[in-house]
Amino acid sequence: MKTTSSSLLLLELFFVIDFDDRTALHCAVAAGKLPVVEFLIEKFPDMIDCTTDCGETAACVATGLGNVKILKYLLNNGAQMKGDKTTRINILDSAFGSFEKAEGTIKEIISFCKEDGKPNRLKELIEDSHFGADRLMSKLIEDIPSVAMDIFDQCVYEETSLENRSYAEMIRNLARMTTRPTDVNEKSIQTLRALYGKNKPSLKKIQATEMFMKGENSFLVIARVLNVATATAEVYAIDGYCSGAPLSYQDLAPQFNLNNEEADIIAAELRRDNVSLRIVRDALQNAFSYNQIRLVLAALIRGEI
């Protein structure tokens, strides 16, 4: 059947129905009408990744509203999760600022990536964030720490994820301390060594650690000497140093570019009776790196603070 100009106009109005460039699909998702969503996708599959004027797809709307059933349906029907650098935003970015409300849908995204059989997918989604992986993860830790741990756990799939593995373990240990604060002093160096599990530190990790402790704090130099990537050299050195001799704040400040004021900020948090994930949140908001935070948490676990 030949399509008339009037029917084309109706179709255009159907796809874009308001001044925000929302489609009928966006409205159906916002209203929580799964049967309508299913009908629209069946009849107009190309509509699934249409964006509003602020870059939100229907999947973004479902994520932000915490509608797990609709999000699951959209993902199973090919809805995109990453941004496209032009109009479409990252599905996680759409929920930034309302992660508590979106906890169920973010869990669904994690589950979808896991079932998809592509271990890189979740890591790539985090790194694709407009806010940056560090800021996105710090917000997740602040709002829904248990989900943040799930993300860390799933992103650990190869040796290059050593940094994430160490950090995730530190967060987990810190969470345990909140329920048993009297056990803090019983946490020992064995906790840090357990980070490696069956993967004992390699010779290159040991060499990187030794170079770092002897004063070579240029990871470019360490990387060149050991023939590894700069980021890898940094992880090797700091993880090794973290597992080595006991640290104090006097040690931390000069070695890791923490001035006294910055060290005092973390120290004040660690001295509170109710140790919690707030430490990590506040430290991240003060622009400390993951490695700096991990070192401070290591000192806490060893009972030095």
UniProtKB/TrEMBL annotation:
Q: Which UniProt keywords apply?
A: Receptor
InterPro entries in the record? Ankyrin_rpt, Ankyrin_rpt-contain_sf
Fetch the Gene3D superfamilies from UniProt.
Answer: Ankyrin repeat-containing domain (1.25.40.20)
> Would you say which domain of life the source belongs to?
Eukaryota
* The keyword Transmembrane is assigned to this record: no
The name on file for this protein is Transient receptor potential cation channel subfamily A member 1-like isoform X2
Provide the species name.
Paramuricea clavata (Red gorgonian)
Q: What is the lineage of its organism?
A: Eukaryota, Metazoa, Cnidaria, Anthozoa, Octocorallia
